[in-house]
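Researcher: Structure for this, please.
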Amino acid sequence: MADMKVEILEGLLGDLYSIFPIQVGLSDVGHSGTRNRLYIILACKEKLLMLHNPTDLYSHVSSELKQLGSTQPGDYLTAGNLEIQLDAMEVATSGKIFRSNMQDLSYLLSERERLVVTQLSDEYRRRFNADPADNRNLVYFTGDNPTFAMTWSGASNRLPTFRRNAATGKFWFPAAQRWLTNCEKLLGPQMLFVT
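Model: Predicted structure, token format:
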């Protein structure tokens, strides 16, 4: 958000437009995501009658929504058994044997994904002196190298940001022994803003 120079917009368009930068966080609307966004509303001064300042209105609405509560990462695990098994079957087409009677889907993780899960679980135990399987809100993103970046909910208790490589990496929940299914990713707050 620091990259956007609102002053430049004001210098170029300020005579014609009222400019309202709005900092938007997923927590403003009750989600547990991590990445904030900047939206800029340009309102034509000649054609618009402003009844309320958009920035003030957004602040009011988001503060009301925050009081209603917010999601936690484990809340996005909404898939039924059939959907989970269909997602697992799709992953198994990459050379693994599908086992319909297995609830623990770790057997379908690639060798690299298993290594990421092991490294992040070890780090979680080291930092929090707790078993990762006991935290229903703990989620790891297996698409990153944990020696470079730990993409997890361990410290923030928020769903990691969905990025472009979210299609290849899995969002693994140690307590559930499974990943977010593709349909569950669509329910995730960050599908609104994939970066």
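Researcher: Any notable elements?
Model: The longest strand covers residues 17-24. The two ends are 13 Å apart (CA to CA).
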